[in-house]
Amino acid sequence: MEAPNHKKTKLLIILVAAAAVGGFLAGAAIMRASRFLATDDAYIDGRTHIVAFRVSGTVKTVYVQDNQAVKQGDLLVELDPADYELKVGDAAAALDAEKAKFIDAGAGINAAAANFDIQEINLKQAVLDKNRAEALFKEGVIAAERHEKVLTAYSMAAAQVTAAGEQSARAKATEDIEKSLVKQKGAALGTARLNLSYTKIYAPCDGYVTRKSVEIGNRAAEGQPLMAVIALNDIWITANYKETQLRKVKPGQSVSIKVDAYPSKHFTGRVESIMAGTGAAFSLFPPENALGNYVKVVQRVPVKITIDKNNGQNRILRIGMSCVTVINTKDE
After folding, report:
1. Comparing 20-24, 134-138, 151-155, 169-173, which segment has the lowest mean pLDDT?
2. What DSSP element (H or E) covers 157?
3. What CATH architecture applies to the domain 82-197?
4. So what CATH class is 37-70+213-328?
5. Cα gap 251→303, rounded to integer Å
6. Could you give the percent of the chain with pLDDT greater than 90?
7. Strand pairing of 75-79 and 36-52?
8. Which of 103, 119, 154, 302 has the least CB density, counted as fewest CB within 10 Å?
9. C-alpha–C-alpha distance, residues 294 and 216, integer Å
10. Largest Cα–Cα distance of the chain, in whole Å?
């Protein structure tokens, strides 16, 4: 039979060993918790491209269905283009008419210039006649009446040169006006053609159609959301970590990811960036601590995590799915 002291010694050894093991496990857990930062406040995020017309009209054709996969540049929906085709025709006709007026204005400039040249020649001749008549009048060779007629002809020639110059200036001004009107009508035609092109909407990226709310015959207003295209090839995770966990978090650190929808699958990623503020700071109604109702709570800061391309497994992920992320803070 064992002595009581021997039993106490064995019990003490067992207790010390258990305490040591427990301490080791607790220390390991603390070290692991300080190295691996986990949160279940995380979800799949991505880019949502809202599809809307830039002009209004009646929907003629819808080429896609809900959840349909589309490629960038695929035609999604089309308005009835009749009204806009008519506007293009009217703008083109107005431009042609203005171009004809511009050509006429150019012809008017040429005619005015030719007339000005003729009047200058007449003036030069009138100057010669005037000088000759004045000399002859002084010598008494010609009568005063003849002298006055020559002076009158000179005055008329000078006035006609002035009038021809003003006519040339008016013709040039008219051409400038017609030139600006041609540009204006050309811009109107460009706008009409652009609006016609807006009657068709193409997929802005590769992705899947969602939130489709348009049907044939609907009256679509400018800017009215018709559907969205989700780019599943460009998704990431937004993980909301406590502010007290961020001291060791840096871009580039590896992340282990578990998605609730696929518990048997393992995803990996990298910390891309840390948001410049807490989620509460950018909420619709941010807290106003200066009002006197301040209650200190641990804030959460969104961390953007990119998902590694794991043999295309990210294609099965959908925006909004919940997940758990674990950041390895020792991974530099």
Report:
1. 20-24
2. helix 144-197
3. Orthogonal Bundle (1.10)
4. mainly beta
5. 9
6. 48
7. unpaired
8. 103
9. 54
10. 176
